[in-house]
Structures are given as structure tokens and as C-alpha cells.
User: What shape does this take?
Amino acid sequence: MKIRYCFVTGLWACLLLPMVSCKKDAGTNYGLPQLGNCQSIGLLSGLHEEDGRYAYTSTKGVDIKLNLRDDGGLVLTMTFTPFPGQPATVQLWGDETDNGAPHVALYENLNGKLIKQRKAKNRTIIFPDGLKITLVSAGPRASVTAISIYDGGMAHHLNVTCNTVEYGGFNPAVAKGLDDQQPDGETSMFEITDTHMILYNAYTEDVPGKKVQLRADLGMLEKGKPNQIDDLYDDPELNFT
Assistant: This one.
């Protein structure tokens, strides 16, 4: 008799099945959930609805609000506190009026100040506590088709095209597997010192596992000056940045 653990469900689903293993089948990808099928699992493990938006708070307090608007706009608002009593908000928002693509999240703000437009297919923000959120698309002006949240061993995957949560739960093996197979694209991180916080692009990953390291500072906040946002990025597509 063999006892095996099925990583897909996180449950002891293979108990008492002689010589049965958790191999790839129609519903998995080598032990990972099958995504892109619009099969809803509901809201689980901290992901919930709040005022008509998806909401999630990381284990260390990063707050995420995601609004898929009926007019096609996508607004992703991410807030954390780099300095006591001084929150910082990164917001991706806006559709593409030129080609009519919905849910593009074309523009990027730091504390309400427009800094740039997104430049790659996928777009990832990694917060100081390790929380990682990735937007999936076919290009910088194409519709976002999926959004993934990785929070340690917790993972959530939202199919934006059909507005369906296709995966959510705590399973470190699944979270790592999903993250590893999904390219980060244009990826931003944060530099925090005693005096300032800089949001910067750290690398681009268009192919899983192949990161091109190139730092580009985007915006800066100074400690004790919550209303001052320094734009550090000259976006050729925006003549006022």
C-alpha cells in the first residue's frame, strides 16, 4: 500500500490507493493547476470582494485593490508603508483608447503622480515583504488577460478575460511552480533607506528563468515629505514626464 500526497488540491486525496501516483492528467500540469479554462474556485485564502473590487492584504500588510470596471478599465492599487505613518501607493490603470483594448492598465502612478506607461508584455511589482503581483498580457498596449498574486506559499490566479478566480490557496510547491513558469516581464522593486524610497525597474524576464538585469529608477518618495513625489523616469511616450 502506498500513501501519496496530491499537491494539486493540498489534501490527502491519494490515500489507500495501491500503486497510484499523482501524475499529469487532464486537470494538471505536472502537479500544477490547469489555468486558462475559466473554471471558478470562488474566493479563498484571503482574497475577497470589497466595494465591488477584489481585495487582498499580504501577511505583512501590503494592501491590494483590483477593480475590473464595466467600461473596460482596469485599476490595480497597491499600498504599503515604507515609513511609519507615510504610506506609498503604486497604481496601474487605464485602457487603450487607440486600439480599443480593454483592461490594459497602461499608465503607472506613484502616490497619484503619473510616472510612465508599461513597456513589456507582463508587468510585475515585488514588494519589500516578498509579495509579488504579475499582470499577464501579449504586449504593453494589449489587454491584461490574467493577474497572479504570490505571497510566500500563498498564490492566487485571476483570469481577467472571464473575470474568474481559477486558483487560490496555500501550497508552497504549487505557488513556486506557477511563479517559475510565468515570466515576470518588466519588473519593479523598491529601495528603502533611512531617508527615501525609490521605485525602480530591476530586470525584464520575457522567457521564464532568463532575466535581463537593467536598473531604471522610476520615482522617489522622501521620508517626512508625503506630498513630494519625484519623477525619475523620462518616458518618451509621455512628454510631461
